[in-house]
Amino acid sequence: MSSGDGKPPLIVAENLTCGYELERERKLLTALTGISLTVDEGEFLVLVGPSGCGKTTFINVVAGIIKPWEGTITFDGKPIVGTGSDRAMVFQDYAILPWRTVEQNVLLPFELRDLNVSKEEAKQRAHKIIDDVGLAGFENSFPHELSGGMKQRVGIARAMVTQPRVLLADEPFGALDAMTREVLQRQLETLVMESKQTVIFITHSIDEAIALGDRIAVISNRPGRIREIVSVDMDRPRLAEGELTGHPDYGKLREHLWDLVKDEALGAKVDAA
Ligand SMILES: Nc1ncnc2c1ncn2[C@@H]1O[C@H](COP(=O)(O)OP(=O)(O)OP(=O)(O)O)[C@@H](O)[C@H]1O
Ligand SMILES: [Mg+2]
After folding, report:
1. Average of pLDDT values for 254-264?
2. What's the gap in Å between 32 CA and the centre of ligand 1?
3. pLDDT band at residue 3, thresholds of 50, 70 and 90?
4. 26-55 burial, b if ≥16 CB within 10 A, otherwise e?
5. Which of 6, 100, 118, 186 has a CA that sits 20 to 30 A from residue 237's CA?
6. How do residues 30-77 score in pLDDT, each as one tens digit?
């Protein structure tokens, strides 16, 4: 599939199978199998599915950390062979460095890779993105002086500062309280709308998936297969007051997704689609 403007998709997985070598047991564990999926430039793809179905594994394949056993995966037309600054990760547990200030954390990617960006420009970009995620004034604060939501904003800022082609977000809001989570969802929605950022986002929350996703891929129990890809045809911003839950399609979509995810969570037998 390609986007309406005729551009080829940014990411194309074809019949992808991958997993892990379990050294102790001396056997292979298949995490994902037969995954065929595309992600268009500017698309927000959400992955949902039961624990252990291979969601994190998939974004690690896109990140270039895990290699496919079978099938192919390409990024911008080329096979993914390793990590790169064009693919940035945001993690559930913040993963920011406690001994560095907010600004120093956000500038870290420029120190880890030679991105051909001057010090001055890196600083400018860092300040802009720190501002965009609502942390202006906290540049010199240390992580222990921040709330969980603020730490997660640092993680998002650090991932966005290199202007990656795709943001890979692994349950970024999973550890936050409901209110903070909603604030960050709104902020991410605004950021993504403005920057047309391509995102692959993992969540266990159906509501979060509907709030943020252009499409939602439901993954089956391990070994993960794509059970169904559901399109969310709702205008943005969706998170303005009452927009989402008051939408005429919301109830049906939520129920459909629930049925799919519940089936998987209960370990129901899945058709080998
Ligand atoms: N480093 C590893 N070594 C061996 N097996 C692994 C490793 N990482 C994950 N697995 C296994 O691969 C399968 C898929 O794991 P993965 O982390 O991708 O699931 P997930 O869908 O992200 O789950 P969750 O929702 O709990 O985060 C699981 O069965 C897990 O035990
Ligand atoms: Mg995971």
Report:
1. 91
2. 10
3. low
4. eeeeebbbbbebbbbbbbbbbbbbbeebbb
5. 6
6. 999 999 999 999 999 999 999 999 999 999 999 999 999 999 999 999
The contacts of residue 158 (CB under 8 Å, 6+ apart) are 88, 96, 105, 106, 108, 109
CATH architecture of 1-85+196-273: 3-Layer(aba) Sandwich (3.40)
| DSSP tag of 144 | G
Q: Count Cβ atoms below 10 Å from residue 167 Cβ, excluding itself.
A: 23
Measured by CA distance, the residue closest to atom 12 of ligand 1 is: 31
Q: Is 28 in the pocket of ligand 1 (CB under 6 A)?
A: no
pLDDT above 50: residue 153: yes
- Which residue spans of the chain are classified as CATH 3.40.50.300? 1-85+196-273
> CA dihedral defined by 96, 103, 82, 189, rounded to 10 degrees?
80
Q: Whose CA is closest to atom 25 on ligand 1?
A: 51
Residue-wise pLDDT tens digits, 72-131? 999 999 999 999 989 999 887 768 899 999 999 999 999 988 888 999 999 999 999 999
**From 20, 59, 61, mutation site for ligand 1 pocket: most ligand atoms within 8 A of C-beta:** 20
Tokens (6 digits) for 259:
């049925």
pTM of the model: 0.92
